[in-house]
Specification:
The chain is of the alpha+beta class. It is 21% helix and 39% strand. The chain has one domain. The protein has a 6-stranded mixed beta sheet. The protein has a two-stranded antiparallel ribbon with strand order 1-8.
C-alpha cells in the first residue's frame, strides 16, 4: 500500500490557512483498494484544505471519466464524473464519526489518510444501474449482438399444459 502514501497529509506542521493538493487517479488506485467495478479511469482530484485552530475544512473536487462494465451487455461504458464534496475534521478526545461529513479525531493525531474518502466519493457517484444510453431515435447503444442473444433467451416458452390446468383451480379456504 505504499502507493497510497501520497494520500496521507501530515497536518501538524501546516500553517493556518488554505493548502492546495492535486492528484491524478488511475486504475491502479482502484486495484490497490481491491475494487472490481471500475475497470479504468482518468480522474483528477483537487483538494483544498483549510487549517483552522480547532478543525480542518476539506473541499474535494473530483472530475474526469470512469470506465465500468455495462450491466446489460457487459461492454465498455464510460461515465463522466464531477464531484464536489466538503468534509470537516474536528479535534477532540477520541475518534468519532459525527456524520457522513464530520469526523472528530484525537488531538494527538498528526496526519490524515484521505484515500478512503476519495474512494468512497468516486464509488458513490456511480449510478446503481450502469447501462448504455439511447441514441436520438431511442435505440439502445448497447452491443446489438448481445441484446439479440438476450432477447432469444428471454423469449417465453410454452407453459406445460399440466401447469396451465392447475392455474385454473381455485382453492376456497373458507369452507
Amino acid at each position: 500500500m505504499k502507493d497510497l502514501k501520497v494520500f496521507i497529509i501530515p497536518f501538524k506542521g501546516l500553517s493556518l490557512g488554505v493548502h492546495e493538493y492535486q492528484w491524478d487517479i488511475t486504475k491502479k488506485f482502484f486495484e490497490l483498494l481491491e475494487n472490481q467495478d471500475i475497470k479504468d479511469c482518468n480522474l483528477q482530484v483537487n483538494l483544498s484544505l483549510e487549517k483552522q485552530e480547532r478543525m480542518l475544512n476539506l473541499m474535494f473536487e473530483i472530475s474526469g471519466e470512469l470506465e465500468v462494465e455495462c450491466d446489460r451487455c457487459l461492454g465498455k461504458l464510460v461515465l463522466p464524473v464531477q464531484i464536489n464534496e466538503p468534509y470537516f475534521i474536528k479535534f477532540g478526545e477520541e475518534r468519532i464519526e459525527e456524520s457522513e461529513e464530520v469526523l472528530v479525531i484525537p488531538e494527538s493525531d498528526y496526519q490524515i489518510d484521505i484515500s478512503e474518502l476519495i474512494f468512497d466519493y468516486i464509488s458513490l457517484s456511480l449510478p446503481i444501474k450502469k447501462v448504455h444510453g439511447e441514441d436520438k431515435k431511442g435505440n439502445s447503444l448497447c452491443d446489438p449482438e448481445i441484446l439479440n442473444k438476450l432477447n432469444r433467451y428471454s423469449e417465453k416458452s410454452e407453459i406445460d399444459p399440466r401447469w396451465e390446468a392447475l392455474k385454473k383451480l381455485k382453492l376456497d379456504n373458507n369452507n
